[in-house]
Amino acid sequence: MKTETAPPPSCVAIPVYVNLGNLTPGMAGSISATAHLYVNSTGYFNVKLHDDGLDDVFSNLTVVLDIGGRSVTLNLKRDEATVNLAPGNYTVTVTIYYVVNDNPHGPPYVVNKPLITVTPIKESEGPPSNQTETESE
After folding, report:
1. What is the pTM of this model?
2. Structural contact between residues 5 and 79, judged by C-beta atoms closer than 8 angstroms
């Protein structure tokens, strides 16, 4: 008797592009956008905020993702989280809250670089116990 196993988890994201415009020192604001995520099988996924150099520009940068009713909050101090997702198509609401440093320095603009990525975690790695999602209903 042959046993079928589920394929390893993978996902395909339809990204969202966000333009904060020209930022000025001390400026604060928020912006929201919607992305889509397709997950082929149940598994753990790493959600990562690519914050390299952003702490030179922002005194506060918080990204809140709503993935199928699960709320994931990332910021300059906590730039990774783990979520367990079942197969399906997810609408992902991305909200970015920011405050620009009084004396920002860094790249003048960033084009075609991901701010957030979602990647499957290999079964052997397992989910980090200190970085699991927060769920809100």
Report:
1. 0.82
2. no
